Please model this.
Amino acid sequence: MTRPPMPDHRPDRVRFWQHLAMFRRDILSTQPARLYRAKMAEVKLPFLHSVMVNTPKLVRLVLQDRPRDFPKSERVREGLRPLLGNSVFVTNGATWERQRRMIDPAFEGGRLRDTFPAMWDAAQAASTRLHPGQTEIEAVMSHAAADVIFRTLFSVPIEDDAAKQVYETFRAHQRSAPILNLAALLRMPKIMPRLFSRKTRDTAAHIRHLITMMTQARMNAINAGTAPDDLATKIMTTRDPVTGDVFDTDEMVDQVAIFFLAGHETSASALAWCLYLIATHAEWQAQLAEEAQALRPYLDQGKSPDFGVLRRFPLIRDTFREALRLYPPVPMLVREAARPEEFRGRKLGKGTQVVVSLWHMGRNENIWSDPHDFRPQRWEQDETKACARDGYLPFSAGARVCPGAGFAMAEAVLILARLLCDFEFRAVAGRVPVPMAQMTVRARDGIWLDVRAR
Model:
């Protein structure tokens, strides 16, 4: 069996400016290999104090037991501000609590069932667009995931003019936006420029302009009583149970921006890596393809399955779980100590950056057996439940757990089943993808697969 590719790791000691240059290009290769077994790591500089917590006890403390004492890092949000504004992904305190009260109902209970038909249409469209031959599968999955978001959020396919422009502009924004800017290292007054490139600022502004037009159009439809019953309508009409307020247009633009980033970019990353893992494990792929044939009667009869069909794909679901463990789309969560702390005998001052690495916890050698191997069968074993409780965090944990986790799992399982029903995937010789992290975990030169019709 082919072992999943890993990034190169830097030596334990490098010069600071060399480390900084590496970090600006990619987070993962900047880390030493010892972090897969270390319990904590610390970086202490005159202008930056940071610790990475690598034990379940400390991770639970930060994310679950005392989340208010470890809010989202103000420094990290600096790099996301041009696109995300004050979205729920970057806010803290009372603002964040208000936003979650108004967003969570859109993803509760039967709402996932309500969005399933749109997911199915997007999965069908993805299969129709895919053709045999060597294919860069990250781009294919980005297109498919963006299609899901626009169909479920605004009831329009990716071919809609505004949706297409948002998608294409976001790809340009992603290529131009660095993971690290000056404000992430140094505390700077808000009046000082953040030194984003012109392309980063222009693409973010254009995306927000397009989303503003779509949001205003939806508000007009809501007022006219003609709006479809989709996620955008649900979120825009949900009143805060405490204040009675609804999101205004500016606030909704912030939320749509993060829905697009979190719902499209992260899903695309995970799906692409999952297909690569499937492509490099032929015997396992054969079992998944057999399971995916549960869709064949619907396809032959031209009918759409209902939500319950997802129960027929347990192996595909476990495969996607394993892909998320090995390649979590968001590799690290960065919090900030709101008051002095002490971790493992180390004093942390107020403002210390506290990093929870989803990448390292998912491969933690003190938690998982064979942590760097692709073994989806592990999810059928009882011992994995304990491992997952301690080290499986692709959707974060605690109060700030991703509200769309169930949505993402349903979307991924459906798209994988639909593609495996019609296609076989093989790795392309000499093109082993190298994982790297900027906004999400991607491959340095893309993920190339040989797609064949079944």
